[in-house]
Amino acid sequence: MGRRPEHSFYPGSGYCGRRCHHPHVHCLVSGGGISEDASSWHPTRRKFLVPIKALARLVRGKFRALLRRKWPDLVIPDAVWRTRWILHVTAWGTGEQAVLHYLARYVFRTALTNARIVGLDTQSVSFRYKERKSGRQRTCRLSGDEFMRRFLQHVLPRGFHRVRYFGLWHPAQRHNAARVRQMLQLQAPPKIVPQPEPGLPSVEQPGAEPPQPIEPRICPHCHQGRLVVVRTVLQDTPRQAMAP
Question: pTM score, two decimals?
């Protein structure tokens, strides 16, 4: 929810008023949900998750109720709750690669990469940034104190977690998450291996692996379910630590 964290480094931002701080949250939400009995998967529409305006009001109300419950003596101007909260919802692709591509920008670095710093001396720091409207690369120069002030706004206080898991992806729901992965694999269209045209000899490259059989394959144990190959483990090689 909100803009990307790097924006507080842009020229003209982070000086005064309500733009001094830009608290926001990034959420990755599955494009669907599991039924109450965990027996079926209900996908969302292709380009629609939830009504954005209604969700923005709901998030604002939930946040206000939480503050009242946790800090009843905290005084916040009423204008904060009348201001429209910014909410942006967009699709980021399908599969684990899309998730990693999105999270890598925020989880594995803080605010500014070293490659964007183009100048450094005893008084100032110069760095590149991308102008949102024009899409062009610009250069900004800040004093050392101002650069550190903006950078430290992106450093989490001690005890805060950068990433949290909720709902289906909470550690307590791993069994349901595994069921969802199986459902999505079963719903995926089968991969058809193209067959050579009649009369044309097949040419095999030296050392090439034999062609895989055409899916779907039947499970050799129950002889009913569809067999989906997740990964192949070679017994001749040392055991490697694999991600779940």
Answer: 0.54
